[in-house]
C-alpha cells in the first residue's frame, strides 16, 4: 500500500494543499498549529473510518467554506487507484470514480494504521476507549463488522427509547422481545468477531512487547465481554445475551437504559499480571500502546497481504531512542508518515522525504 498523491481543498486549514509523498519515510514537520495533524486526519479518512478527532463534518470544513474535498492516488491490491471524499452536510465517497453508497464502503480498500498521543487511551482509559479501538481495528480487516455494529447501535437506541416509554407506561412491554432478539443476534456476531480479533492481537502484541521491553515484561491482552460466553459460537453468545437482556428487563425499564451487552464490553491489558491501566507507569503504558498499535498494523498486513500505510502523529518525540529504533525497524519497507515539530533528531534516523508545513501549505520539500 502506497499513497502517491494527496490533495485537499478547504479541509480544515488546508485550503489548497497538494503533495506527492515518497514510498518510504515521509517526515512532515512544522510549528504547532500549521496543519500537520490535519494532513494525517485527512489521509486517515480514506480508510472509511470517521475522523479520529471529530464526528462533526462542520469542523472538517474550512471556516467560511461550503464544503471540503480530499483526494488521493494510491497503489493497493496491485493496481493504481483513486479515492475522493466530499464533505458537506453529508459525506460522499468515490472509489476509482464510482460513487459509494456510504464512505464506510472504503473500509478495507485503503489499509492504514494511525498512532498518536491519543492511542495511549487504549491502555489508560476506560472500556469506551477500548471498545473504540476494537471497533476501528476489526472494521478494517472485516468491513462487515462495521455494518453489524451500526445496526446493533441503532437497535440499541431504539430499545432504549422504548424503555423510556415503558417507564412512563406508554407502551406494551411485549414489544421488547423483537428488539432483544435483534440485539442478541447482532451482539453474538460482534462478540465473536471481537473475541477472534483480540486473540490474534494478544499474540502479536505480546511478541512485540517482549521485543520492546527486551524480554523483561510480559503483556497479556484479553477480551472481556460484558456477557460472558468463553469460546462461544455466535449462536451461543446470542443465547447468552438474550438471556441477560431478558433477566434485566425490569431493571432496564427502571433505568431507562439497556444494561447488558457488547456496548459494555471491555479489554484487559496487563503487564506481568497487573492491570496496566491502574498499575502501569507512564512508560509502561506507552510501550503497551505501541505494542498494541504495531500488533494492529501487523494484522492488517497479514489480512491485506500488503503493509498498511503507517500514520504516526506526534508520537516519535515521546518515545526514547530505543523505542524509536524499534518503530523504524518495524516499519522498514513500509510507507510511513511521521509528523513532528523538530525534525532534527528524527531526520538523522530516517531516510526519506521531508516536508515542511506552514499555515496549511507546503513550505519546503526535500528528498533524500
Ligand atoms: N475547520 C477549520 N477551518 C479552518 N482552520 C481550521 C479548522 N479546523 C482547524 N483549523 C486550524 O488548523 C490548525 C491546526 O492544525 P493541526 O493540523 O492540528 O496543527 P499541527 O500542525 O500542530 O498538527 C489550527 O491553526 C486551526 O485553527
Ligand atoms: Mg498536531
Describe, in plain words, how this protein is organized in 3D:
This protein is an alpha/beta fold and about 375 residues long. The chain has 2 domains: about 1-110 and about 305-368, P-loop containing nucleotide triphosphate hydrolases (Rossmann fold); about 120-305, Glutathione S-transferase Yfyf (Class Pi), Chain A, domain 2 (Up-down Bundle), CATH 1.20.1050. The protein has 12 helices and 15 strands. The strands form 3 sheets. A 6-stranded antiparallel β-sheet has the order 2-1-4-5-6-7, covered by helices on one side. It is globular and about 70 Å long. The chain starts with a strand and ends with a strand. The mean pLDDT is about 95. Adenosine-5'-diphosphate binds near residues 12, 13, 34, 37 and 61.
Write the layout of secondary structure elements.
Layout: E1 2-11, E2 14-19, E3 25-29, H1 36-45, H2 57-60, E4 68-76, E5 79-87, E6 91-95, E7 98-99, E8 112-115, H3 121-124, H4 127-141, H5 143-167, H6 176-212, E9 219-224, H7 234-247, H8 249-255, E10 266-271, E11 274-275, H9 276-279, H10 282-304, E12 309-313, H11 321-330, E13 336-340, H12 344-349, E14 352-358, E15 361-367
Parallel strand pairs: 3-13, 3-14, 8-12, 12-13
Antiparallel strand pairs: 1-2, 1-4, 4-5, 5-6, 6-7, 9-10, 10-11, 14-15
Helix pairs in contact: 4-5, 5-6, 5-8, 6-7, 6-10
The structure holds adenosine-5'-diphosphate and magnesium ion.
